[in-house]
Amino acid sequence: MKMWEELRNISLLFCLLSCASSFGTRYTPDWTSLDSRPLPEWYDEVKFGIFVHWGVFSVPAFGSEWFWWYWKVALKPEYILFMVKNYPPGFSYTDFAPDFHAQFFDPDEWADIFEASGAKYVVLTSKHHEGFTNWGSQTSWNWNSVDNGPHRDLVGDLGAAIRKRSLHYGLYHSLYEWFNPIYLSDKQSGFKTQEFVEKKAMPELYDLVNRYKPDLIWSDGDWEAPDTYWNSTGFLAWLYNDSPVKDVVVTNDRWGLGCYCKHGGYYNCADKFTPGQLPNHKWEKCQSVDTISWGYRRNMKLSELMDLPSIIKDMVYVVALGGNYLLNVGPTADGMIAPVFEERLRGIGAWLKVNGEAIYSTKPWRVQAENATVPVWYTSKSSTVYAILTSNPMQNSFKLLTPKTSHNTVVTLLGNPEPLKWAPLQTSGLIVLLPDLPFSPAEAWTLKLDA
């Protein structure tokens, strides 16, 4: 009998070793191990995604998605005055929820717009700092989109539409909640207790992953407490080892005070992060079409929105420096993407249809930018170099000083199949004879140099 038990134990050990080997590296719940995980390749290849900030804050649609905080904590006069003028005494923030009805929300229509933009991934706010969840979270009481407001699973509905178009689906999730009494109790203890993490934050994250199988987790709301409070490394170890998305999921860097730009899958660093030089780690810039707010504002002005040339210049800059560009739009409370946002997104898509090969699946070149007659940004793919001009040089000949050429070099203008005439410069670089550049609302054109 003892011999059989020993054989069984040996067999079990062999099985465990074989299973561990077949599933690859097992990550331990510490940053040294977690940060060693290779970033899934799909993320670096896609380059461009859409961020969607949608929640109860879309109902007042005034000032910012931080409306509740600015009204009740920061006590900003314009928010207080807005409430005094438009709502009766005693009206609370939670009273906005029934008007978050999303009656015009058509997830297929949204997905069509996102696909038309040329984006390859979409990140939806599953829950912002207000704590309202856009799915039927079991730990949210009735503060969710199934029991309140829209009475539908917004996370699931949009995810199904996104995936029908073969786009990657990501979920934003705020770890903390401004006014959750359990969180405030933990905060009062100096984060020595973890009741909120154990009863709310982590159960929600595990539920989101198991239920919706997102390709990306965009964590936020982490900055008041260390990662040890949030148990971030424990969650990420499970995510990378045992979750249903362990082989494809991508994460950002907002997992606790002091973590951003230091730990995680890729780096967001600060909002609208714009490095001055090529970073040594994969990164992402999140940027909003509305430069004032991430959520929809009824009081936004055209002058406060990024125009199409500004968006394209920003995206080109980010990709040339090895980043991904996550561009945000805020839908209305009734579920519409404002026409001005749709116009921007479709304009990006039109530009990418011609110039996308200089963006998707590219790598930073040995030189990222050149101060020519007009700004030039470089990307590369194998032996091909792309020079993206972000304004019209208004001349027939154009010099590129950085590329090295040979007699086999072929230069073309993307969108124009005919090779362009060029000549080498004395030291390095070349001078290209440009055709009449086609009209581009984005005010950007790409020269392709094949060695």
UniProtKB/TrEMBL annotation:
Entry-linked InterPro entries: FUC_metazoa-typ, Fucosidase_C, GH, Glyco_hydro_29, Glyco_hydro_29_CS, Glyco_hydro_29_N, Glyco_hydro_b
GO MF annotations, alphabetized: alpha-L-fucosidase activity
Catalytic activity: a neolactoside IV(2)-alpha-Fuc-nLc4Cer(d18:1(4E)) + H2O = a neolactoside nLc4Cer(d18:1(4E)) + L-fucose; an alpha-L-fucoside + H2O = L-fucose + an alcohol; a neolactoside IV(2)-alpha-Fuc-nLc4Cer(d18:0) + H2O = a neolactoside nLc4Cer(d18:0) + L-fucose
Compartment annotation: Lysosome
GO cellular component, one term: lysosome
The protein's Enzyme Commission number: 3.2.1.51
Highest taxon in the source lineage: Eukaryota
Swiss-Prot/TrEMBL site (May be important for catalysis) positions: 286
Major localization listed first in the record, in broad terms: other
Entry's Gene Ontology BP terms: fucose metabolic process; glycoside catabolic process; lipid metabolic process
Signal sequence annotation: 1-22
Domain (Glycoside hydrolase family 29 N-terminal): residue spans on this chain: 23-357
Ranges of residues in domain Alpha-L-fucosidase C-terminal: 368-449
Key words, A-Z: Glycoprotein, Glycosidase, Hydrolase, Lipid metabolism, Lysosome, Signal
Similarity comment text for this entry: Belongs to the glycosyl hydrolase 29 family.
Function: Alpha-L-fucosidase is responsible for hydrolyzing the alpha-1,6-linked fucose joined to the reducing-end N-acetylglucosamine of the carbohydrate moieties of glycoproteins.
Protein name, UniProt field: Alpha-L-fucosidase
Source organism per UniProt: Sinocyclocheilus grahami
Gene designation per UniProt: LOC107556374
